[in-house]
Design brief:
The complex is a heterodimer of chains A (277) and B (169). Chain A is of the alpha/beta class and 277 residues long. Chain A contains eight helices and ten strands. A four-stranded mixed beta sheet of chain A has the order 4-2-5-10. A four-stranded mixed beta sheet of chain A has the order 6-9-7-8. In chain A, strands 1-3 form a two-stranded parallel ribbon. Chain B has 169 residues and is of the alpha/beta class. Chain B starts with a strand and ends with a strand. Classes of the chains: A alpha/beta (277), B alpha/beta (169). Chains A and B meet through α3 of A and α4 of B.
């Protein structure tokens, strides 16, 4: 058994949460740098605003985006990891401290009164259990703009591949530029609606060029990327560059009567952190 | 894509008529933040015939909920939020004299037409560039609805604040 120390856990969690708010994901930064080399001078000026934004955020410890999001946490717990403290409490306390100490926006409110919870809590936590002695933590800050772009549907089990593709493309068309393109897009297909959503969200953690998809998923993702990038949206809706930096697809088995599908969008300021204990 | 400079509040709305969709514009002067909940309250004040907390004639509203002020009294990050959420709340403000709104993303066609009818312009700015945009804000003052926190109305002095005209006035 490996004992997970509460104080060290909190320290690592805080560190990654701060990192996520101030530092752009490296693959997105590289994407911006490459994009500026293949667009017009006028478009370059706009891409440069985003490169400068990431530099200012890092240098001056300013949030990359004022919408510092809700905190989504994916925890993978090894069967030989021993946690003898209240993990959820530790996470929520750390979130509260970091959002207060680092001058981040507290964006969570009760659904009807819209009264702010005042600590950007609760964090939304999902657990997976696995073999091993490690505790793996993935943090994702999800802004309201991209969250409002989440789509889910129960298609007919007889839907063709073309119908599945056209549902995704239609949804992205509908979202347009309102969730801050260029996007990271991920599609969960199968399971039940909850599982489809879960995987669509979790796959946003994957790097633009990161593998991990099987042949069927890869082929669908390539087709979708082509079709989505043919839409007249583009960088910030300005019809240059790409609408999507990547499309990830995850398929899991589903009931014979169903075909759940879920689409999650990561904005250009996708903010993430991870650590292994 | 011509670059123009506009100062708010406008002396009159003539200058907006020179803008074309796609123009990159630098904003100067005074603008006001207001997003979802503040819009609801502004509309209620208008309905009740009560005065608004700022002069709406020839003014610009910025759909923005900034991060808290830092030691220098300025926001750390202050980019735009999604404009389409304010679509159903915009017409009464245009009627009251609002001449510009700044946000991100597309809007319902009928709202874009309304902007045109009232000689106003919808500007987009850069979603995801909050740290960069915050540095274009030279001062800020809380002027209404402090209980709304980040959603309160702030009066901002901006300089060189980059926007793109989303339609013709």
């Amino acid at each position: 058994m490996k004992a997970i120390d509460e104080a060290i856990f909190k320290e690592k969690f805080r560190e990654q949460l701060i990192h996520a708010n101030f530092q752009l994901r490296e693959d997105v930064r590289v994407y911006f740098k490459n994009l500026r080399e293949r667009v017009s001078q006028k478009q370059q000026k706009i891409v440069d605003i985003f490169i400068e934004n990431s530099e200012i955020a890092f240098r001056e410890k300013r949030a990359l985006c004022q919408d510092t999001g809700y905190v989504q946490v994916f925890v993978r717990i090894g069967n030989r990891a021993r946690i003898d403290f209240d993990l959820e409490k530790a996470i929520n306390l750390s979130v509260k401290e970091v959002y207060q100490d680092c001058g981040l926006r507290k964006s969570l409110a009760y659904p009807l009164s819209r009264q702010n919870t005042s600590g950007n809590t609760p964090a939304f936590i999902d657990y997976e259990f696995c073999e091993g002695e490690n505790l793996e933590v993935f943090i994702m800050l999800k802004g309201g703009g991209s969250e409002n772009a989440t789509k889910a549907e129960l298609l007919l089990p007889t839907a063709s591949l073309e119908e599945i593709e056209s549902w995704v493309v239609k949804m992205v068309e509908k979202i347009g530029a309102r969730a801050c393109p260029p996007y990271l897009i991920s599609v969960g297909i199968g399971g039940n609606l909850g599982k489809a959503l879960y995987y669509s969200k979790k796959m946003l953690l994957e790097g633009i060029d990161e593998g991990g998809m099987d042949e069927e998923e890869k082929s669908l993702s390539e087709n979708l990327l082509k079709k989505i990038n043919a839409l007249p949206i583009g960088f910030q809706g300005l019809q240059f560059g790409e609408t999507a930096m990547s499309v990830k697809v995850r398929m899991i088995p589903c009931h014979i009567a169903t075909l759940p599908i879920a689409l999650s969008i990561g904005c250009n300021s996708v903010r993430q952190g991870r650590f292994i204990f | 894509m011509n670059e123009k400079a506009i100062r708010f509040p406008l002396p009159n709305s003539e200058i907006l008529k020179t803008l074309k969709a796609g123009d990159l514009v630098k904003l100067f002067g005074t603008i006001y933040t207001a997003r979802d909940q503040a819009h609801k309250r502004l509309l209620k004040l208008l309905e009740e015939g009560k005065p608004l907390p700022f002069g709406i004639k020839n003014s610009a509203i910025y759909y923005c909920g900034p991060t808290p002020a830092r030691e220098d009294g300025l926001f750390g990050s202050a980019g735009p939020t999604t404009s389409s959420r304010m679509d159903e709340l915009t017409l009464p403000l245009l009627k009251a004299g609002l001449k510009a709104a700044i946000g991100k993303g597309g809007r319902h066609e009928k709202i874009l037409r309304a902007f045109q009818e009232y000689g106003a312009v919808y500007f987009t700015t850069f979603g995801g560039a909050g740290a960069y945009l915050a540095k274009k804000i030279k001062s800020q003052k809380l002027i209404a609805f402090p209980d709304l926190g980040a959603e309160a109305i702030y009066e901002l002095e901006v300089e060189d604040f980059p926007v793109i005209a989303a339609g013709n006035a």
